[in-house]
Fold each of these.
Amino acid sequence: MLVEPTAQLQPFSCPRGFTVPKRPGERNEDCWQNSHKGAGAVSDGASVSFDSAAWSRILARRYAQHPAFDGTWVAEAIAAYTKLHDRDSLPWMQQAAFDRGSFASLLGVSDRGEGRVGVLAIGDSLAVLCDGDRVVASFPYQSPEQFEARPQLLSTNPAENAFLSDPDTVAGLSAEWDLRALDEPALLCATDALGCWILSERDREPSPIARLRAIAKPRAFARFVEEERAAGRMRRDDTTLLAYWHWSADPEGGEPPC
């Protein structure tokens, strides 16, 4: 599968991204990235693996800069990760963990031109399409209960990526959304804790989209996340939002307002 964006870059020119760790002072294993190549991504590293923070950074940054996904793309990402660690210098227990692999989700979005957006989703990070403050669609999950299943993640261990050799599985990793029929299109990318919260709260007033739209500063996002965690409405985990609130679905519409 090969996904290349068109030259139309305007929809991705004004992103708003925030991320907070599980707890203050702990390492954040989430990463978000946007580029002017018509692509953005979020990645959520699995805490149980060797160095998932580095792996999530590689995945998100690589997709934003090179928004094409196939076996070669994955192999090159693994090679970049391998260069970060000298396996032979690690203690034997860390060598075993390194060999088992690091794991992370990858959610990538890319501009297809003419008001369409492509979505790539491996794991449990969530893309949400909105019209104003209404959730129109989400991918790869549509209900909060789906977050209870163990996700299939990308690994630095090639053997763990065998699922990518199944054409039917690969076909199910992507979606395309047409934004031209929407009055106020917006696109959100969220790691699992926030994605589950959005789907759980979608029928409440004020809508979860309206609440997120009102957040303009990192400190406000951190305060919002802590409030929802304290209320028991959001799971305590690294939490990341990459939002494209001002989406120009008109290819002749010029730059959207920031």
Amino acid sequence: MAAYGLYTHIQANRRRSIALLIGLFFLVYLLVYAGALVGEALGSDEAPDILFRRALIDMLDAAPFATIGTGLWILIAYKFHQQMIDAVTGGRTVTRREEPRLYNLLENLCISRGITVPKLRLIQDDSLNAFATGMNERQYSITVTSGLIRSLNDAEIESVLGHELTHIRNGDVRMLVIAVIIAGVIAFVAEIVFRLFFQGGLRWRRSGDDGRRGAGVAILMALVLVAIAWIVSILIRFALSRQREYLADAGSVELTKNPDAMISALRKIEGRGELQGATSAVMEMCIDNPRQDFSNIFDTHPPIDARVAALVKYAGGHDPGPLALPAPGATTTQEEEANASAPPQSGPWSSVETRSEKPFLPSRPPVELGPTDAGEPGPWGPHRK
């Protein structure tokens, strides 16, 4: 069944994600088979077909232990992944007293949809980025950089928070954390195998030429399987990330009713999201990953231009093009000078016209993102016309 509209695309994406996670578990068993094949090749002089059959039996015997081991690794990450991420990025939990502006924007969004407010974390970094983490409601948190808070206005920050809330609401965060964990295990095992063979100088003895040929074929096949598992695990991780960014952008627009703010936020973040010291796994969770690979094949995020084009086409936004920002630490702008000379406001009920900044929720009609099915729940509940 073809997907149409925002909600059915979300449902279709969830089904594809589950299939991809099953594929990752299959790759774990493929690695087990490759290891069994190496073990048989090093301990026997049989022909390749016999070694392949014995390795399959060994793999079936070891499969329960591989499943338990992978499950334990996921459990460890379930409990401690946030601490690991904070150790890498330097993130820390902030309260309303410390960041009232950020906290109020997030709380207003959550109250408008009746969802639990996730924890807020802050990274002291000049880069412009944000990401969501957590495996359940008690763990969900949104992390932003100090550079993002300084460089974006309220409407843009609200759009970024809506993007991350959509990731949480759609189950993207939990899915991506599990995928990164399993793919990390595959990459770790693959690296050990290749180091063992190409740097460790592994040698074995055989009683005859046939035995040497059989073992060589088996080991070569094992190396090919390890390489395939590693490459496919990377592609699965990227497949999980790329499509979800489009849906999270659309979910943010549906939540804030402000596609222009989402577009300008992406334009400001563009090329400025590099988190120093962050691993590739952390960068995959960010709203933008500026790290690029060969011909965009291995990019975890679609290009900003493509995301902006989608918002212009389907949400009716306007693209201002690439935006220049003042250098970190530069605080003197025309707007700030105007704010400094403006008289203080009397309270929260001052009229919009007397404020120095535009309201962060401009009046605009609800944005319809393509045809929808009223029976299909979206990220913020059933669609209401």
Amino acid sequence: MQTAPDPEPRSPRLIPIAKEARRFSRGRHSHPWAHLIYAMRGVVSVGTEAGTWVAPPNRAIWVPAGVKHATRSHGPVRFRSFLVEPGTKVDLPATCCVMEMSGLARALIVRLDTTFSPPRPADFTERAARLLLDELGVLPTEPLNLRMPHNPQLARLCASLRTEPGRVIAIEKIARRLGMSRSTFMRHFRQETGMTFGRWCQQARLLKSLTLLAKGESILNVALDCGYQSPSAFAAVFRRTFGKAPSSYFA
């Protein structure tokens, strides 16, 4: 019995969006198109009910179709984004993620940016769009996100710690306040966030530091605002996590 041939993959259609502003913010919304947000300068963050994803320069945030999200910049920003038409075959996660962009991906984004380039032939645009989506599918993701718990008590705690990442509270004190033992609190927190409480707090401080550095804050002020004892202590954790010193990261 002869089987029908597989249908030809649908030609990808991308809608480019360019933005350059001193400050950018769009409230919670969703759409049937997937969304790629590429930060060229400055820092962009995406917030959903599940957490926050942060993209420094040369990183991009992938937002799957239908995910309700809010987008904002932290200081002056220049970014390019693409809406990916529903039905397009994409080998990317079904959840938000942050990717470090390769040289090929950056070059393709420039080619596809019809806002600043002359219109291209349709077949060229389709081939470039497919190559970009294929390249995104093999790029490694980066740990530039912060998962929020669903438990209302833990969610309120995490929201306050995100506002004041430099605040230090003993785990025993938090557990008593929530009516839990220390071990119960630690178990619930890890189940809800995928991290230990200490690791979550460190991630919150590091992501906050990226937004402050993007606004031009000094390393000293960033270190103190984020709860580190000294700039050197902050720089050591920053380098261990991101592979570069804070002074050179945005370069």
